[in-house]
Amino acid sequence: MTAAPADRRARKKARTHDELRVVAQRLFTERGFDAVTVADVAQAADVAVQTVFNHYPTKEDLYFAGRAPWVEGPARAVVHRAPGTGAVATAHAWITRHVLAVPGLLRRPTGAAFAAGTLASPSLRVHQRELLRDGEDRLARALRATWVEQVGEEDGIGLVAALSSALLLTTGRVALGEQMTVIRAADPAARASRAVAEEARRRSRPALDAVGNGFAQLADRADAPPAFRRVAELERDLPPDPRVARRTTP
Fold first, then answer.
1. Could you read off the pLDDT of 117-129 as tens digits, one per residue?
2. Which domains does the chain have, with CATH numbers?
């Protein structure tokens, strides 16, 4: 059976999207992000410059394409978690698992080059912060939706979702910063060693554990706003869904 024209166009578009990403990231690795232009990417991929922009609005989007799972990962984990598991617990488990995986990724040449390239470019650092904020908004919307489904449009529930998301993702960011401090302080010859990676994980783990334990205490505060108590009671003692917590894209 011959594929419909719409299906062929969709497959071709997806191939072009992936090919542009691969070509661009190869050029970034070879020359450095700031030395590569969108025109360079278009020429290397044998497409028009406008084709690149049709798929990726900015050069920064090309750099992070396929390498920023934290934008959609926590929210997707919440949405796809199994019945009887906690939204907060699952988002926290996703963030913890992926943050603790970073030192191992940085031991690989590709991971180290990605991190170094990001740190070397002011525009990439700005874009990374924008992506983090996008991830925070996505997680807040996912948390709000799951709680509204359970208790309805209760006053203040959106604020609880926004604060919960901000706390979870900020903790992940701080833990990553602690890991990078450990790695940068190590002897250059040992930075890619297993021992340094383990020390980075050990130093970042307390912050990750502390924020996970803190949510359960909200319902125990007599002065907590009603929406905070209601959400904390909903989430109390619910386990995470380990299946979606360990997947980059559940």
1. 999 999 999 999 9
2. 5-64 (1.10.10.60), 73-245 (no CATH)
Backbone angles phi, psi at 76, to 5 degrees: -65, -40
Whether 211 contacts 171, CB under 8 Å: yes
DSSP 238: P
pTM of the model: 0.88
d(CA 98, CA 69): 9
- Give the whole-angstrom CA distance, residue 233 versus residue 187: 47
60 within 8 A of 129, measured Cβ to Cβ: no
Q: Report residue 238 as tokens.
A: 């619910």
Phi-psi region of 112 (alpha: psi -120 to 50; beta: other; left: phi over 0): alpha
Q: From the DSSP assignment, how many helices (H) and strands (E) are in the chain?
A: 12, 0
Task: Give the dihedral sign, CA 157/158/159/161.
Answer: positive
